[in-house]
């Protein structure tokens, strides 16, 4: 099934756009490598979250043998698991979620891994427009910023709680420049999600 999805995505995107695959922690090392061999012609940028978060030895084996970047870390908290993903798991891309990892304080510690190891850092960001703003600010501080995740899902939390929702322009988002995170909340929209 995943092979067909990769093929369909590549056909839709065409050859000049970046394609990334999220494994949803559903693979073993063997199955992940088999899939990567079958989709090699489709020029993946990375294979994200192929294994369980704590399978550091598996990530090391996968990273050694895979022909694409291996990305992980979206479920991790504190800086220690990210250091282990680099040192033991030998992943190519760290994906801290600022709402989970420990906010900007821990994100700054993770950014040090970019400088010391050369690992790429791309924040996981799938929940709210507030997290999008925080992630964009974090990415703007990185020495080698590449990507920041942005959900295009039809979710009221992603697009509906900000007074001015983010707008993709040619696949890019501007880093908000207002006070704080640079975004203002739509209090009426938020009140619809409150639970007593």
Describe what this molecule looks like in 3D:
This protein is an alpha/beta fold and 196 residues long. It has helices at 2-13, 29-38, 56-65, 80-87, 98-101, 103-117, 129-141, 156-159, 187-191; strands at 19-22, 44-48, 69-72, 93-94, 120-121. The protein has a five-stranded parallel β-sheet with strand order 1-2-3-4-5. α2 packs parallel to α3 (56-65). The longest helix is centred in the middle third of the chain and has 15 residues, at 103-117. The protein starts with a helix and ends in a 5-residue tail after the last helix.
How do the strands and helices of this protein lay out in sequence?
Elements lengths: L1 H12 L5 E4 L6 H10 L5 E5 L7 H10 L3 E4 L7 H8 L5 E2 L3 H4 L1 H15 L2 E2 L7 H13 L14 H4 L27 H5 L5
Parallel strand pairs: 1-2, 2-3, 3-4, 4-5
**Extended strand count:** 5
Q: What would you call the shape?
A: globular
State the order of secondary-structure elements, H for helix, E for strand.
HEHEHEHEHHEHHH
Task: Provide the structure class.
Answer: alpha/beta
Q: Report the biggest beta sheet as strand number plus sense, adding barrel if it closes.
A: 5 strands, parallel
CA-based gyration radius: 17 Å
- What is the helix fraction of residues, given as a range? 40-55%
Low-confidence stretches: none
Q: Beta fraction of the residues?
A: 5-15%
Separate helix tally: 9
Strand order of the largest sheet: 1-2-3-4-5
Average the pLDDT over all residues and give the rounded result.
93
Distance between the termini: 42 Å
């Amino acid at each position: 099934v995943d092979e067909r999805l990769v093929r369909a995505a590549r056909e839709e995107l065409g050859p000049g756009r970046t394609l990334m695959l999220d494994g949803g922690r559903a693979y073993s090392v063997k199955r992940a490598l088999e899939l990567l061999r079958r989709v090699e012609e489709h020029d993946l940028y990375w294979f994200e979250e192929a294994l369980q978060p704590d399978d550091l030895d598996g990530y090391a084996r996968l990273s050694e043998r895979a022909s694409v970047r291996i990305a992980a870390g979206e479920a991790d908290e504190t800086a220690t698991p990210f250091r282990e993903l680099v040192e033991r798991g030998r992943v190519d891309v760290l994906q801290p979620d600022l709402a989970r990892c420990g906010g900007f304080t821990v994100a700054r510690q993770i950014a040090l891994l970019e400088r010391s190891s050369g690992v790429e850092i791309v924040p996981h960001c799938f929940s709210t427009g507030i997290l999008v703003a925080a992630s964009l600010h974090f990415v703007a501080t990185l020495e080698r910023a590449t990507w920041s995740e942005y959900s295009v899902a039809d979710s009221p939390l992603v697009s509906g709680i900000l007074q001015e929702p983010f707008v993709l322009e040619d696949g890019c988002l501007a880093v908000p420049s207002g006070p704080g995170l640079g975004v203002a909340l739509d209090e009426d929209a938020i009140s619809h999600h409150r639970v007593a």
